[in-house]
Amino acid sequence: xxxxxxxxxxxPSNVRLDASASSIPVTVSGQPGRLRVSxxxxxxxxxxxxxxxxxxxxxxxxxxxxxxxxxxxxxxAMAESMPSVTSPPVLTALNC
Length: 96
Prior knowledge:
With 96 residues, this protein is mainly beta. The chain has a 4-stranded antiparallel β-sheet. 9% of the residues lie in helices and 27% in strands.
């Protein structure tokens, strides 16, 4: 599926999604998650991180997500501070 995605207005205009950067498995409060870290396109030492959980490579749809100009350590600490998910997400069909 291809679709245009509107980024929030506070995201710098020169940010591009790095399709070559694959996510890595992480654990958040005992649950599987996926974390992707990308370098700043301007060359600074900051990193853009994206985290979803519970999620796996085979099932990459999570209930929770965090993203931003954060360190890997910071985003995982923030995720650990949130309540854990004890039941699977409820999915619904659109346009029914």
